[in-house]
Amino acid sequence: MKIIKKISIFTLNKTNLIMKKIILFLIVVAFSISCSKNTKKENKTEVNNIETTDKTVENPVLALADFDDKAAKWINKEVEVNGIVDHVCKHGGKKLLLVNDKGDVHVVSETRFDDKLIGDEITLTGVVKEFKVDEAYCLQKEEDHMQNHKEGTDSDDVYVQKMEQIKTYRDSMKVAGVDHLSFYSLDYVSHQVKK
Question: 125 to each of 60, 70, 90, 98, how far by Cα in Å?
């Protein structure tokens, strides 16, 4: 009987040892698989983040023909436009007019534009800005124009033209049924000359 007891204890210990090894092996395999899945998830997430970042870097391209209609959606955001440099302001060179057959946009910069850009077709990146003309603006301009005319700064013809412009603003607001008119331009960021 002692021999049978010894054999069963030996067999039990051997079975426990095999079970322990199997359990340990399964734990190692499970851990390896879970680490492998996490690494793939992390890599996939990184790729997705990179793709998302690349997508946000691209600026929307607005056609000059649609610029005034679509600019309100992009106020204080960067956009791209394509056109020909028609004019660089002679009084400081910090403004240019970008045109094509279907539209135009005024561009303002903190630095001077090179006059050599005139006639070049460019892709320009800029931040959309809105200038609002409302009744308060009209009243202030009327006052300024009357003062300039009174002081002799503006001739009679110039004074009449400026007052007619204010009337045009008011008439336009009335016809449109709005309390202000919006005029859009771009604050210059960068450009590339098309070849």
Answer: 10, 16, 22, 12
